[in-house]
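Reading a protein record of the kind used here takes only a little practice. The record below shows the convention in full:
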Amino acid sequence: MRAFLPALCTALALTAAPALAQDSRPQPGPGSDPALSAAEFDALTRGRTMDTHDAEIGLYGVETFLPGQRVIWRDADRCMHGSWEQVGEQICFLYEDKPDRPVCWTYHDRGGWIMGWFEGRRDTVPIMLYPAQGPISCEGWLGA
């Protein structure tokens, strides 16, 4: 048992090291990290389902990106349909519960995942979109 614990600790440290290194990497500045255009964002997301995470909450929602810039958003509290469009450098989402209140982000390709900044503000906690299993639907959804 004594020999097992150091080996286990070493294995855990080696497993965690890449994740810690990824999180501590400096992010490019705004000038060297252009926001994705609508065409670029659509090419990375259309037909896919993405898990949405942030550094404070972790996984907090899942979104399926459909043709025609349509989406289905699902979290613990709700499941709803929406759409998105490019406004300036931002990708803005309109959901059926608040069709007059867009939620806008700048998105940045990170090679295998996408980072988003609320309203393009780098002083906010970014979100991370990671490929997930999908698609999702609201059919049969009962809520939390």
